[in-house]
Amino acid sequence: MASLLLFFSLFLASALASVPRPLVIWHGLGDSHSSPGMLQFVSMVQKVHPGMFVHSVYIDEDLGKDRQAGFYGNVDQQVELVAAQLAEVPELEDGFDAIGFSQGGQFLRAYVERYNSPPVNNLITFGSQHMGISDIPACRRYDFLCQVAKRTAKQAVYGEWAQQNLVQAQYYRDPSNYKTYLVANKFLTDINNEVPTRRNETHARYLSTLKNLVLVMFTEDETVVPKESSWFGAEVIEEGMQFGQFPFRMVKRFFAGPEVIPMRLQPIYLEDWIGLKELDDRNGITFETCKGEHMQLGDCWEDLVIRFTGGED
Questions:
Q1: What is the pLDDT of residues 157-168, one digit of tens each?
Q2: Structure confidence by residue, pLDDT tens digits, 113-122
């Protein structure tokens, strides 16, 4: 009898050990938590990791309203809602890996920095705007919801209403109007700890608990400007230039594109505002590329899902 109990105990322990770590996914702009594309991706992930529990983040269970929330809403409130949502999922209580598509990537990073309970083990972000965007993403030809949001955002991007209600405005970082951005923006300046008087050391402490931060950039990305924002690259701040320098930079930008400073030369890294340097010093940051335009995953996702999701530690 004792040997039978021991056998079942060992069998149960083995079965539990073989269950992949759960995964949380936050979809991108113009998508919803259970769109056909998202359901297909979840299915492909579960073929890679049989038995994996996957939770797709939602702002609203209604698919139309969830898609709309990607354009309109207060991002701080959305991240808070998702933190409460994840805390109520019993399968996630011991932690999980996470994948963020496009803007879902910086939103998941905000979750890690502000809450991280339950904790994230590995975070993979595809084409995310970690250092913001210097232009509003282009819209598909007949996507009128997107076109209205873009037009409204660009007209008064740093106005109070836009900063409270237009999602893309809340990570718009204008290198030619940086001082206004620091004053007006509340979301991106917070998760990047850019305002000295508002720096929150908890952000760095929580982000540095990640085992791996995997940053994926799309090589031909024209939606995220600059595309290097996916790797924490940012355009040169133009404010404070001498008068004669500005026209030259405008001409250079027109022909050669924006001048981008890589992550390891940025103050956010050098002064370790959010824990990036600490992560990097222990080889916790991985830079990857997917060949193609924004969110054209092809098959580049599969190796990353194999390497950075579903593990046991």
A1: 999 999 999 999
A2: 999 999 999 9
Active-site residue flag, 190: no
Q: What is the pLDDT of residues 43-71, one digit of tens each?
A: 999 999 999 999 999 999 999 999 999 99
Range of lowest pLDDT (131-135, 247-251, 268-272): 247-251
Identified catalytic residue from 102, 134, 208, 229:
102
CB 125 within 8 A of CB 149: no
Please list the alpha-helical segments (H only) found in the chain. Answer: 2-17, 36-48, 63-68, 75-87, 103-114, 144-155, 160-165, 178-184, 188-191, 201-207, 245-256, 267-270, 276-281, 300-308
pTM of this prediction?
0.87
- Residue 143 annotated as catalytic: no
Tokens for 194? 């850019």
14 has pLDDT over 90: no
Q: Which of 33, 49, 203, 294 is catalytic?
A: 294
Which long-range contacts (C-beta less than 8 Å, at least 24 apart) are formed by 276-282? 276/207, 276/213, 276/232, 278/204, 278/208, 279/207, 279/208, 279/210, 279/213
Q: CA-CA distance, 55 to 58, in Å (whole number)?
A: 9
Cα distance between residue 17 and residue 19, in whole Å: 6
130 catalytic residue (yes or no): no
